[in-house]
Amino acid sequence: MWQTINDKLYKKFEFTNFVEAFAFITKIAIESERVNHHPTITNTYNKVEIWLTTHDAGNKITQKDIELSSVIDKLC
């Protein structure tokens, strides 16, 4: 479930290993580029953390973030 923290959508994903985590990040990159909306992503071994906010809207959550979060959920 996505959380709202400091006007950002946040979610942590855990995978079996680094390769699976990195493959997930690659899928996110492709979809993010397609919709021209890019999240902040961190990766430590099998953990991926994602923050979504819209910079053009003053770093607030917008419909773009909600839609991308839904797409991301479908990728894992």
Considering the chains and any ligands shown, give keywords for the structure.
alpha+beta; 4 strands; single chain; Gyrase A, domain 2; globular
Quick overview of this protein structure:
The protein is about 40% helix and about 30% strand. It is of the alpha+beta class. It has a 4-stranded antiparallel β-sheet, with helices on one face.
The share of residues in helices is 40-55%
Q: For the record, what CATH class applies?
A: Alpha Beta
CATH superfamily: Transcriptional coactivator/pterin dehydratase
What coarse outline follows from CA principal-axis ratios? globular
Tell me the structural class: alpha+beta
What is the multimeric organization of the chains shown? single chain
- Please give the count of helices: 2
CATH topology: Gyrase A, domain 2
Low-confidence stretches: none
- Overall number of strands: 4
H/E topology pattern = EEHEEH
The major beta sheet can be summarized as: 4 strands, antiparallel
**Order of strands in the sheet with the most strands?**
1-2-4-3
- The CA-CA distance between the termini, in Å, is 13 Å
Strand content: 25-35%
> What is the C-alpha radius of gyration, as a whole number of Å?
12 Å
CATH architecture: 2-Layer Sandwich
Query: Number of domains in the coordinates?
Result: 1
Mean pLDDT over the residues: 96
What does this structure look like?
This protein is of the alpha+beta class and 76 residues long. The chain has a single domain, classed as 2-Layer Sandwich (Gyrase A, domain 2), CATH 3.30.1360.20. Helix content is 41%, strand content 28%. It contains two helices and four strands.
